[in-house]
């Protein structure tokens, strides 16, 4: 019984202390009613500070730009750490930033691909037919028609990787 009374007194004291400090919050920050803070990631523009003398053109803020277009045929060189040089061909389908499609190389493998494009990064997983192995591909969109990067094998008892440089639509 003594524990219940002690707990009740402690809860009352904490509640009273907490309410008095929270209740004084609006006075300390000079606002009344509900409090909300927002932060804009773009700096405010003051036309009075424009020294260029030119016309000020304002764009719509926070519009998300579409991902780069990488759909279609791609082909080029591959340099495998174990098998040496070869050629790689991909046929990429794109829906928004998501990618899928098929691929083949002249080193003896072919299969399907899934991945995404974000900015200039092209991140894809290649799944070879008839194998548990997967290839993690990290590419960079160097230009609208060239992707370069590296790959490494995972998901099996092999260790391999290499580099590639592919272009489109030169296939």
Describe this structure in words.
The chain has 171 residues and is α+β, with helices and mostly antiparallel strands. It folds into 2 domains: 2-37; 72-167, Beta Barrel (Lipocalin), CATH 2.40.128. 16% of the residues lie in helices and 42% in strands. The protein contains 2 helices and 8 strands. The protein has helices at residues 2-23, 25-29; strands spanning 72-80, 84-95, 98-105, 110-118, 121-128, 134-143, 146-154, 161-167. Strands 1-2-3-4-5-6-7-8 form an 8-stranded antiparallel β-barrel. The chain starts with a helix and ends with a strand.
How would you summarize the topology of this molecule?
Layout (H helix, E strand, L loop, with lengths): L1 H22 L1 H5 L42 E9 L3 E12 L2 E8 L4 E9 L2 E8 L5 E10 L2 E9 L6 E7 L4
Antiparallel strand pairs: 1-2, 1-8, 2-3, 3-4, 4-5, 5-6, 6-7, 7-8
Key attributes of the depicted protein:
alpha+beta; eight-stranded antiparallel barrel; Lipocalin; 171 residues; single chain; 2 domains
